[in-house]
Design a protein that fits this description.
heterodimer, A: 123 residues, mainly alpha, Serine Threonine Protein Phosphatase 5, Tetratricopeptide repeat, 87% helix, B: alpha/beta, Double Stranded RNA Binding Domain
């Protein structure tokens, strides 16, 4: 009787781990596929894959980060910042995301700073 | 048998733990469009209006040339419509007169007015330069020094983007370019377009951004 209970519990644990793992693996596959597509300059395909990766695993730091890079590439800077911030919320110490985020912020601030400097010069 | 299966499970778990823990990143070079200083995409039309001109040049309609040039060049980059409008400036402070800009267009929603202040000047600079002694000697009375003249042109542009629905200035930037030309036959029109071309590069970088190649990290886990 006790043996059966242990076996049933083990089966439940294994199956739940399997299905959870499946989701994660699906997400990882989409992530990798997206990276491959981006290397071939197929950024729309990459975005599609990374969105799918996020649907399978909403806590995927990689998917948020990669989507942000793709948005930057498309000139959608506000959307990119939002995705970087979500990635950093999930993994605040990730050096890759931190580096990408810093560069993105600098790109956005540079022309605004130039305009501000021009106004200051006039004063 | 039991011991073996235990080891097998442990090995699988260890492999999974290792695969989950390692982070895989790919460094890529991405062409990123520069972020513009002002977002023009929410607007459907830009109306290029006449500029305030401090001094006028003889035989050259600067305002007409400036408005036509900006309208045509912006049309290549801007997705919306471009048009031009003649306005009469009372003074240089009219950019701050919100009521004037609010009543300028019949349908101001979704439009932007591009206008500003322009100053184009030219002068001749002369200098007494030592004559090159290696040049052919014209005799005992050849002067030791000779006059050299250069024509100098300067263009100052203050560009304003004004929202006609509120009369507010959305963007303002001053530009100044100068150039010297050898020989006095340089026509003002040619010099004007040379200088305007230089200003255009700077202005368009602010209005539309410019592409940069930068490195980013993509994560594959």
């Amino acid at each position: 009787m006790r043996k059966n209970l242990v076996a049933a519990l083990a089966l439940i644990c294994l199956s739940s781990a399997f299905f959870a793992g499946c989701g994660a693996f699906r997400s990882a596959d989409q992530l990798k596929f997206g990276v491959w597509a981006s290397e071939k300059n197929l950024w729309d395909e990459a975005i599609f894959r990374w969105k799918k990766a996020l649907a399978a695993n909403p806590k995927s730091v990689g998917a948020h980060n990669n989507l942000a890079v793709a948005y930057e590439k498309k000139g959608l800077f506000e959307e990119a910042l939002k995705e970087y911030e979500l990635a950093l919320k999930l993994d605040p110490e990730n050096t890759y995301v931190k580096s990408n985020y810093k560069n993105c912020q600098e790109n956005i601030q540079a022309p605004k700073k130039e305009t501000k400097d021009n106004k200051d010069e006039k004063k | 048998m039991k011991k073996n299966s235990g080891f097998l499970i442990l090995a699988i778990l260890a492999a999974l733990a290792v695969s989950c823990a390692t982070e895989s990143s790919v460094k890529v070079k991405v062409v990123i469009p520069g972020s513009p200083a002002v977002r023009l995409d929410p607007y459907r039309e830009i109306v290029v209006a006449a500029f305030w001109q401090e001094t006028e040049l003889k035989d050259f309609n600067l305002n007409q040339a400036l408005v036509n040039y900006l309208r045509d060049e912006i049309e290549h980059q801007f997705k919306g419509k471009l048009s031009s409008k003649t306005i009469s400036w009372e003074n240089a402070q009219m950019t701050e007169n919100k009521d004037f800009w609010k009543q300028l267009l019949p349908e101001p929603q979704g439009c932007l007015i591009l206008t500003g202040k322009a100053q184009f000047t030219q002068d001749v600079r002369k200098a007494l330069l030592a004559k090159d002694r290696r040049a052919i000697d014209d005799g005992p009375f050849t002067p030791e020094k000779a006059w050299a003249a250069r024509k100098s042109f300067s263009l100052k542009l203050g560009i304003y983007l004004i929202k006609p629905d509120t009369g507010e200035v959305l963007f303002q930037r001053d530009f100044q370019e100068a150039m010297d030309y050898e020989g006095q036959k340089q026509m003002a029109e040619f010099a004007f377009f040379d200088l305007l071309q230089k200003i255009k590069l700077k202005l368009f970088r602010l209005l539309f951004g410019s592409e940069k190649i930068q490195e980013r990290y993509l994560l594959s886990r």
